[in-house]
Amino acid sequence: MDERVIGRSGQRASVVGLGTWQLGADWGDVDEKDALAVLEAAAESGVTFFDTADVYGDGRSEQTIATFLRGRPDLHVLVATKMGRRVDQIPENYVLDNFRAWNDRSRRNLGVDRLDLVQLHCPPTPVYSSDEVFDALDTLVEEERIAAYGVSVETCAEALTAIARPGVSSVQIILNPFRTKPLREVLPAAREAGVGIIARVPLASGLLSGKYTKDTVFATDDHRTYNRHGEAFDQGETFSGVDYTTGVEAAAEFAALAPEGCTPAQLALRWIIEQPGVTTVIPGARNAEQARANAAAAKLPELPAETVTAIGDLYDRRIKDQVENRW
Predict the structure, then answer these.
(1) Which of 19, 57, 91, 195 has minimal Cβ neighbours within 10 Å of its Cβ?
(2) Does the pTM of the predicted model rise above 0.90?
(3) pLDDT digits (tens, 9 = 90+) for 20-33
């Protein structure tokens, strides 16, 4: 699989990576056997970038990745983790002493001396404007606790503030055919600054797979049940912030745009891969079959111009008014 450079870090990531939130929690139950099978299928399909966080299953996702990689010393996989969401979300918690403690825990979970890439995990907005925060992150690099750092953001405004920071290697942001606002300012600014873009929630929490209907019922411990209106964390993380009924209807239209030999999910991933400035896209997978299908999107032909135009038209008609003013 093709790889791209992650901004200023010089590190490389496969154009399709693997998001591992679902291996920890919040997507219904995924047992360890299935989780390891997902990691194996992704790696065998050419994926060289795993994205995780210390809060996914309170460390379970990190630990599962460590277990897998210990058994596959032949693989070169860059593991990006995130920190900051295990404490109250106030700017005062984003200080060097806490960073060191969080870093120590993630290094233990992942079984490494130095983390490849650490991202602030959607912190309070004032954090992005704090010189002390980024000085502390520079200190972690100097202490060889981390090789590079980036941020995971909720809004385009936060992304632009972070991109202006000279030490930021990457910005992780929600980007998919139902969340296209980053294309206009964030991706051009990142390209100019030499910052990598990690595209998350690429399938709008599964909506863009075309598999769901208005009657679909998700497990009670699945965020698609308990966070539809932002009850637990930012609403944008669930179905990209799109009202579920609207999303299902729009997803049916989207599915009809898939070229022959391309599933709706692969269409969404292919659309993201082709956006100038995207480094990697990180779909999750609950089983090995999904992991292999996601990776296969990297090998598909370039999308026809008429398909790209139709996707943009669908967004403008059905989605734009719901999401643009918030994120």
Answers:
(1) 91
(2) yes
(3) 998 876 656 678 89
What pLDDT sits at residue 27? Answer: 58
The CA distance from 16 to 81, in Å, is 17
* 7/292 Cα distance (integer angstroms): 26
Calculate mean pLDDT across residues 5-30: 87
Compute the average pLDDT of residues 268-276.
98
Q: What are phi and psi of 44, to 5 degrees?
A: -65, -20
Backbone angles phi and psi of 90, in degrees to 5: -130, 145
Neighbours of 150 (CB within 10 A): 28
Give dist(CA 84, CA 43) in Å, integer. 28
Q: Which residue has the tokens 């995971």?
A: 152
Strand partners, 146: 115
Q: Cα–Cα distance between 12 and 280 in angstroms, integer? A: 9
CA distance 182 to 300: 24
pLDDT of residue 29: 66
Q: Are 37 and 290 in contact (CB under 8 A)?
A: no
